[in-house]
Write a structure and sequence with these properties.
single chain, 347 residues, mainly alpha, 5 helices
């Protein structure tokens, strides 16, 4: 039953050779493409490595610049922070000076008020509104005005200390951030590929600020502190001037009060001396008058005897009888004598 006819599945030698040639060419083509791909991959690896190396170099350079910037502003903050601390210490010292000045006003004010109270006990004509009274009242008003001014200045000093401390707080907070950022960036600058632990989680936040806002923030803190230090210096200069002026004014007023007291005492002594001199004269005049009165009484007593004699004679002669009761020269003489003695006694 076997037959020598060709199977329908068999190919001819030419077909077989063509098929093998096709496979060989395809294999050669794939081999060439594989070689080209290998070369391209090698080139890409070299480019990637070079790019990564250059990128790390650029980042390291930028980290260096960043560290320089942080160091610069950190030093600026430290310098201004030291100045602010010094200004706070100065203001605290001036605050103590002002507080002591307020306390020192109590004693002279109490003395002036006591003087006014004591002078209120003057009596009669001595209860006069004189130069001493005016100067004492002026001194009281002046000291009370100084106390109010010092109290207001004390409040301003306390507020300025608060503002300086506020500026100091924000600079210290900024400086702490600068130290932390410098440590982190310095650590980043020392990192290398083999020594770095890969962090796959990249959900952390960046862009809290940009370089401009970062510099502006620190510059604003420094400028604010500088302004507060300037304000503190101006306030201290004002306090120096004010204390010197108030001391001078109070001293001058104290001298004015002393001068008024001296003038008033001199006037009082002069008036007292004049009164005593006048009193002495009046007393002497009284003694002279009393002596004269005594002499007059004696004279009057001496006149009474002749008067009694004349009256007695008149009475006796009035007993003459009848026609003998004559108003003769004797009667006229007796009447004249009586009249003269009575006139002298009345004087």
């Amino acid at each position: 039953m076997a037959k020598s006819t060709k199977s329908a599945q068999q190919l001819s030698w030419q077909q077989w050779s063509a098929a093998n040639e096709t496979k060989y060419l395809n294999a050669e083509k794939q081999k060439f493409q594989a070689e080209m791909l290998k070369l391209e991959m090698h080139r890409l690896c070299e480019e990637t490595e070079e790019f990564s190396h250059q990128s790390q170099k650029d980042v390291n350079k930028k980290l260096g610049h960043r560290l320089d910037d942080i160091e610069f502003w950190k030093m600026e903050l430290e310098v201004q922070l030291d100045k602010t601390k010094t200004e706070i210490d100065n203001l605290l010292a001036y605050k103590i000076r002002v507080e002591k000045s307020v306390s020192s006003c109590e004693e002279p004010l109490e003395i002036a008020l006591s003087c006014l109270q004591f002078r209120a006990f003057r009596t009669d004509v001595d209860q006069v509104y004189d130069g001493v009274q005016a100067e004492l009242e002026k001194e009281v008003r002046g000291i009370q005005g100084v106390k109010e001014l010092l109290q207001k200045t004390l409040e301003q000093t306390t507020e300025q200390i608060r503002l300086c401390r506020s500026a100091k707080y924000y600079m210290e907070k900024d400086l702490a951030g600068k130290h932390s950022a410098m440590d982190i960036d310095a650590q980043c600058a020392t990192m290398t590929v083999p020594s770095t632990k890969v962090i796959l989680d990249s959900t952390f936040q960046l862009q809290a600020s940009n370089p401009d806002s970062w510099r502006s923030f620190t510059s604003s803190n420094i400028k604010k502190a500088e302004q507060e230090c300037i304000n503190g210096l101006n306030l201290r200069l004002l306090i120096d001037s004010m204390l010197a002026q108030t001391v001078s004014d109070m001293q001058n007023q104290c001298e004015s009060v002393y001068a008024a007291f001296s003038q008033r005492i001199m006037e009082t002594k002069d008036a007292k001396s004049k009164l005593e001199e006048h009193l002495s004269k009046i007393s002497e005049q009284i003694r002279d008058t009393e002596f004269t009165i005594g002499r007059l009484k004696l004279a009057i007593e001496q006149k009474e005897l002749p008067l009694n004699l004349a009256v007695t004679r008149m009475a006796a002669r009035a007993e003459r009888p009848n026609i003998e009761l004559c108003h003769d020269p004797v009667s006229s003489g007796l009447e004249q004598e009586i009249a003269e003695v009575e006139t002298a006694a009345k004087k």
